[in-house]
Write a structure and sequence with these properties.
The protein is an all-alpha fold and 148 residues long. It has one domain. It has four helices and no strands. Helix 1 runs parallel beside helix 3 and helix 1 runs antiparallel to helix 4. The longest helix has 34 residues. The protein is globular and about 55 Å long. The two termini are 14 Å apart.
Length: 148
């Protein structure tokens, strides 16, 4: 089990809290940048419809994955906050999640139909992000459990 101690200064506690809080949203932001860049590599800058289709794909994937998880796990808590209490472990896991998700997006962005490629990039990126973060939260909870 990894031992962590709370920072002793108010500033240190604030930095600890901020890194703990933004670990997962930060990953998704990086993923959107990476997804866009690998799709731009194959199709150039998106037009307005491509942007909307990427958003539709990303939101649709989020709803579908969330619905499947909700259906399978019912009323269990959606997120165990303490599973991400080790920001440095989350950051390490984020690297793997980002590499895999970006690679999958790169592969689907090779689809020759430009609008379909943007839609699939949104679907693939969000789906791989959710799966990757869930796997890393599962691993972190077992490698470095935090007793309340």
């Amino acid at each position: 089990m990894l031992a962590t101690s709370r920072p002793h200064t108010p500033y240190g506690r604030l930095i600890h809290e901020v890194t703990e809080t933004v670990a997962i949203p930060h990953t998704y932001t990086l993923l959107i940048w990476a997804t866009t860049m690998v799709t731009v590599e194959h199709h150039g800058l998106p037009d307005f419809l491509s942007v909307l289709l990427m958003l539709l794909g990303a939101c649709g994937a989020y709803v579908v994955v969330g619905r499947i998880a909700h259906h399978r796990h019912g009323n269990r808590p959606a997120v165990e906050r303490r599973a991400i209490a080790h920001p440095y472990l989350v950051a390490c896991g984020n690297i793997a999640t980002l590499v895999v998700a970006t690679a999958v997006c790169w592969a689907v962005s090779t689809v020759p139909l430009v609008h379909l490629a943007w839609f699939l990039s949104g679907v693939a990126g969000t789906t791989m992000y959710l799966i990757g973060v869930a796997i890393q939260a599962y691993i972190v909870a077992r490698v470095a459990p935090v007793e309340e």
